[in-house]
Amino acid sequence: MDWLILASQYVPANPDQLSAYDSFRIWADSNRAWIIFVELILVYYLGFATTWRMPILKTVLLLVFLFIGSLIFAILDVQLPVKSSMMVAIAILVIVKVRIKPDANKRS
Fold it and tell me: pLDDT for 11-25, tens place per residue?
């Protein structure tokens, strides 16, 4: 993942004395693919999964494809706001899940 570190756009104002925000941005840039991978898993299970439990081989295959997708999104994240748009998608899906849950109980 060294090529992602080289592609980082964030340069702290004072590299000798990093603030908490600077440290977080540097950490987020160095772990870009893993953060996007976790966000992709959340989006999949909140929005697309019909069942939480699948056979183990399907789950492994799903995780492999999600990781490949996270590598592609990590490359795109250098110039586009992929991480923040994934957070917006997660927030929207959580709101939808919370709002649908009480309606399903009322209909029964």
Answer: 777 878 888 888 888
